[in-house]
Each structure stands twice: as structure tokens, then as C-alpha cells.
Amino acid sequence: MNILISNDDGVFAPGILAAKQAVEDLADVTVVAPDENNSSVGRRLTLFKHLKLEKVNLDDGSPAYSVSGSPADCVVVGSDYVMAEKPDLVICGINQGVNISCDITSSGTVCAALEAVSLGIPAIAVSLFMDPKTSFKQDENGEWYVDYDFTLAKKVLHDVVSKIIDEGFPKEIDLFNLNVPSNYFNEEVKITHLSHKMLDKKVIDNTNEEKSEIFNYSLDENQKSDDLIMIASDLVKDYEEGSDGHALIVEKRPSLTPLSADMTYKDLKDW
Known about the structure:
By secondary structure, this protein is an alpha/beta fold. It folds into 2 domains: 2-193 and 238-259, Stationary-phase Survival Protein Sure Homolog, Chain: A, CATH 3.40.1210.10; 199-235, no CATH class. 24% of the residues lie in helices and 25% in strands. A 9-stranded mixed beta sheet has the order 3-4-2-1-5-6-9-13-10, sandwiched between helices. A two-stranded antiparallel ribbon has the order 7-8. A two-stranded antiparallel ribbon has the order 11-12. α1 (14-23) crosses α5 and α2 (71-82) packs parallel to α3 (108-118). The protein is globular, with a radius of gyration of 19 Å.
């Protein structure tokens, strides 16, 4: 089996190395990813514009390719240009964050998987939900850092790919959206459906005291803050049972959501 791995966090993000390590014993792996972070760009494509393709090395010394484009660009470039043959499977991730609910259409990770499906390649989008209480730590000097623990995510991804190799994708399923919590109560994967939404979005300005620290972050001193606005968001806290959000955030267990690229609702006879 030949697997193409990409992401939206960038080719040097720790999650893409974790994804490669999770499946490299199962297949021949090629890594093609953006040269910089491309989170929340959706399925943006760079058409009829030059892209820089560069060979690089990951932290373990293994070869990879960086592309000066979007995650969807990387899937097209990887499958149609870098690899000698179209891959049998595309893995997007491991994303450093969460991708659940109908908000996945803005995710560079999930939309790169959708781009693969449009090319006739089944795909898996995988994300690590980092618990704010356990993933963000301070060192001995008081400096904050992120503790990326991909242990469970790598195990679950390996198991899912092994099952796909043995049994193929389920009928009428084009891609899996896998989310794994860093701080978990249960390692058993739950098959879920999409939640209604993931984020509560709100437009703020410099009068918002609650989010003043976010609004003023890296603000150019020459800019007047009263001329600026920002879209801020908070993670939804309530999810219906059986949904990806409920499994991941309430039950604290891995969520696997089977998806079809055909979003058509076929029965409108009573409309």
C-alpha cells in the first residue's frame, strides 16, 4: 500500500511526523505538506499560480516535501506529481487541535481529505484534541510550552489503517474524521455523527474587556485599535449524545466519524 500524508499545520509540525511513525510499518509513506501553517483555510486551491516545491527532512531525518500552498494543493501535488502512482490512501494530520461538527468545512485538515476523495482516493483526517488543563505546561523557568502526547492518536490511527488494509472502506463511506483526546477516560473508539457546531463565534473590538488580551495580541503599534475588529471563538460545551463532540469532549474517548462527500439529502417528496 502507498500512503500520502499531509496536514495543515505545516511540514515541520510534530503531528505529521507522528502520523508517519504511526503507519510506516504498514505501507510506503510519502509526506507532502505546506511550508507554513495553513489552519482554517478550508479547501482553498492555488490555480494557475506558481508553487514552490522543496525537498526537506523531518526531525527523524526522513525525506518529505514542502509546498508553498494550501493543504488541498499538497494533496494534488503529492498524488499527481511527487508520487509515481496515485496513493491508495491519504492521511491528513495529525492535526494539533480539534475538528468536529459541521465546522469541519473550514478545516484545512478535513478539506485536504475531501480533496483526496475528489481525486478518487479514500482518506482519513485525524486530529489530537489537546486538553487545556493537561497539554499546556510550564518549564523550570516558568516558560509555557505545549506537551504533544500523540501516543493514543498514533495507536488508534494505526488500528484504523490496519482495518482498512484488511477490509477496505465501508460501503458508501469516502473518508473518516478521527479525533483523539490527549486527556482520555476511555481508549475505545466510538463511531459518531457530526455535532451541530464546534465553535461559538463573536466579533469583538477594543471595547471587549473579556477578550482584551486576545484582541491586542501582536497589534501593530501604528494601528489604531478603534479601527480594528476580530472574529473570536469559544469551543461549544454542550453536545448531543452520539455526536463526535460528545464522545471527544464529554466522554473523553476517540471519535471516528464516517463521512460521504455526497452531501445531498435525497428525499424531498414531502417538501
